[in-house]
């Protein structure tokens, strides 16, 4: 029983090592490197989009708290968010409307 157990364990480790070695070798081929660079660029693009969305959300929030108007000319911001930022947090008139 003990020899069969050690044989199965050795065979499993051998298959695992061969699989890892094959994957590592494929990662350093030109196609593998191109795939890694494509994944990196996609990740950076998604990260940049998330940062820009967070910045826009925070700007709307800060403008709402300070009562400043927001002149939106970009399609990234939804119409409802821009209208809410112009009205302010309570939905009342802005400072410009009270002058």
Automatic annotation (TrEMBL):
<feature type="compositionally biased region" description="Basic and acidic residues">
    <location>
        <begin position="75"/>
        <end position="84"/>
    </location>
</feature>
<dbReference type="InterPro" id="IPR046165">
    <property type="entry name" value="DUF6167"/>
</dbReference>
<dbReference type="Pfam" id="PF19664">
    <property type="entry name" value="DUF6167"/>
</dbReference>
<feature type="region of interest" description="Disordered">
    <location>
        <begin position="75"/>
        <end position="99"/>
    </location>
</feature>
<protein>
    <recommendedName>
        <fullName>Secreted protein</fullName>
    </recommendedName>
</protein>
